[in-house]
Each structure stands twice: as structure tokens, then as C-alpha cells.
Design a protein that fits this description.
CATH architecture of the largest domain: 3-Layer(aba) Sandwich
Protein name: LysR family transcriptional regulator
Oligomer: single chain
Family: Belongs to the LysR transcriptional regulatory family.
Helix content: 40-55%
Keywords: DNA-binding, Plasmid, Transcription, Transcription regulation
Pfam family, one: HTH_1
CATH class of the largest domain: Alpha Beta
Radius of gyration: 32 Å
Largest sheet: 6 strands, mixed
Strand content: 15-25%
Distance between the termini: 81 Å
GO molecular function, one term: DNA-binding transcription factor activity
Length: 311
């Protein structure tokens, strides 16, 4: 059997003794530690038997420390206090190097994550918890330190900072574009259209796009998808035309994976904003991530959207 290295009573028993001495009451110690008074008495008795001395003098009003008890309590109280300070420091340090960041699924997939390796190389000591969802109800404000949102730029209790604007235009696969070569904006209502059931109020779907373009059309009967990135996959698989958000699909268009279809370009009603809780002080790690997001957003902002044909 391996001997205890420091030849101390059990830490549980020492914690029970410290609480009893601090309260001068076994009953209050039991309440603090969420155990029964008899369990506290057993732990105290075990320490006294192990040390061979009496630590408390019991009376009707509680307990009083003996000289040996005072000596042990002074050392334990000082040690526990130092351990508590160290634990709090470690917790704060971990929290300070950890940032909870939120954004939509498609924004994370198509814009943020491809650029994150640069941040990880620069700041390997900062852990970013990515909270990713297309439904903003999944983000509890108390948990989120930074967030990228699309919209008008004004939200209750949030400080917002403009990152870059947005526009939308039809995109499809090169094969689909070749099959319908010569099609114009007026032909769009009669083509296979891919739409997205979006939870955000600022999302531009096909019905709104056709309405803003002044194109008469029947009730929408195209294919619908629950996520924008799935609709993009369908478009790349030659299944139809999807409304592409320039800041999301721009690289795919530049690479030739998708192509713009017709000359329709609609100015988006909102923009992308970096936001944070107006009532919370940002940690040093959060400030570092915010500065990095500002820098990469500037690169995006310096690449303007195509000129809108529909404002």
C-alpha cells in the first residue's frame, strides 16, 4: 500500500475541520458542506484520533478551538485561501483566453472558417468557441461575446460596427448556364429556381427578388431548401438557379464553380455587422479577435459589390 506523500489526514476531513472552526459550529459546517452534522462529527473525530489531540472543546453553544486546533486552523485557513485565489486566477485566465463567437451557418462555412487558420497561426493561445446557427434564438446573449449579424445594424442592448455591404444575384452551374445560354432576366420566372426557407427577416428570396425586379410570376413552385449551403450544392449539381449572396458566393464565382446568370443585381437591404453586448466588458482575447475580424473585413469591404441593377 502506497503511503500518503504528505502524511496528512484526508483532505475531506481537513475541509470539514476548517469549516467547523470558521463557523465555530458543526451544524453550520454541515449546512455549508451539504452533509449531516453526524457526518461532520465523524470527520472531526477521525482527525483527532489520527493526530492524537483534541481539536475542539464542545459546549451547548457550539465548539471552541483548543490550542492545537487554533494552530491547525491558522495553517489550513491560510492554505485554503491561497488555493482559492489560485483557482480563481486560473478560471479568469482560462476565460480571458476563451472567446464565444456566433454567426450563421452559411457565413461561417463560406466566409469565416476559410480565413480562421490565419487567426490560429497568429494567436494559438486563444480558444474560439464557434456558436453556429441560422436561427438567432439559439444564441443566448449572456453566452456570446462577439457576433457577426446581417441586418440593419441596430439591435437592442448590442453595440454594432459595420463590416461590409451585400448584394445578391442569380447564380448557377456552368453546365446549367450553357444549357440556357441567351436567357435574360425576364426568363427567370420560367426557369428551375432554387429557394431557401430562411429564418432571418432580411433574407432575399426568389419571390421578393422577382417582385423587386418587376417580373410577373405565378406563385413560387420551385425547389425549397432549409439551408443556403444545400441550395448552393443543388445549383452546383445543375439543378437550377439560386440567389447568390455576393460576399458568400463571390469566391465560387471567381473560381468558376458557379457563374452569374443574367445581369440582375439587387442591392441588399442590410449589411454585415460585428456586434457585442453593450453592458459587458470585453476580455483581452475578445479584443484581439475583434481587431482581427476588423482587418479581414476591411479586405472584403475593399472589394465592392457589383453595380446594382435594382436598388
Amino acid at each position: 500500500m502506497v503511503r500518503r506523500y504528505y502524511e496528512l489526514p484526508s483532505l475531506t476531513a481537513l475541509a470539514v475541520f476548517e469549516a467547523s472552526a470558521r463557523h465555530s459550529s458543526l451544524k453550520l459546517a454541515a449546512s455549508e458542506l451539504n452533509v449531516t452534522p453526524s457526518a461532520v462529527s465523524r470527520q472531526i473525530k477521525a482527525i483527532e484520533e489520527e493526530l492524537g489531540v483534541q481539536l475542539f472543546v464542545r459546549s451547548g453553544k457550539g465548539v471552541t478551538l483548543t490550542a492545537e486546533g487554533e494552530e491547525l486552523y491558522d495553517v489550513l485557513a491560510n492554505s485554503f485561501s491561497r488555493m482559492s485565489d489560485t483557482a480563481r486566477s486560473i478560471k479568469r485566465r482560462d476565460k480571458a483566453r476563451n472567446v464565444k463567437f456566433a454567426c450563421s451557418d452559411v457565413f461561417a462555412t463560406m466566409w469565416l472558417i476559410p480565413q480562421m487558420p490565419d487567426f490560429w497561426r497568429r494567436h494559438p493561445d486563444i480558444m474560439v468557441d464557434h456558436l453556429i446557427s441560422d436561427d438567432m434564438r439559439n444564441f443566448r446573449r449572456a453566452e456570446v461575446e462577439l457576433r457577426i449579424r446581417f441586418g440593419p445594424g441596430a439591435w437592442s442592448d448590442e453595440t454594432s460596427e459595420f463590416l461590409f455591404d451585400e448584394c445578391v444575384y442569380p447564380v448557377c452551374s456552368p453546365n446549367f448556364a450553357a444549357r440556357f445560354e441567351g436567357a435574360t432576366m425576364a426568363d427567370l420566372p420560367d426557369l428551375p429556381l432554387l429557394d431557401v426557407n430562411w429564418v432571418g427577416p432580411d433574407w432575399v428570396g426568389w419571390e421578393e427578388a422577382l417582385r423587386r425586379a418587376g417580373l410577373p410570376h405565378a406563385a413560387f413552385d420551385g425547389k425549397r431548401f432549409g439551408k443556403f449551403n444545400v441550395a448552393l450544392q443543388a445549383a452546383m449539381a445543375d439543378q437550377g438557379v439560386v440567389i447568390g449572396w455576393h460576399r458568400i458566393v463571390g469566391d465560387l464565382v471567381q473560381q468558376g464553380t458557379l457563374v452569374r446568370f443574367t445581369d440582375l443585381v439587387i442591392r441588399s437591404p442590410g449589411g454585415y455587422y460585428l456586434t457585442w453586448n453593450s453592458h459587458r466588458e470585453l476580455s483581452s482575447a475578445t479584443l484581439i479577435l475583434r481587431e482581427w475580424l476588423r482587418s479581414i473585413a476591411k479586405v472584403t469591404r475593399n472589394n465592392p459589390c457589383p453595380a446594382a441593377t435594382i436598388e
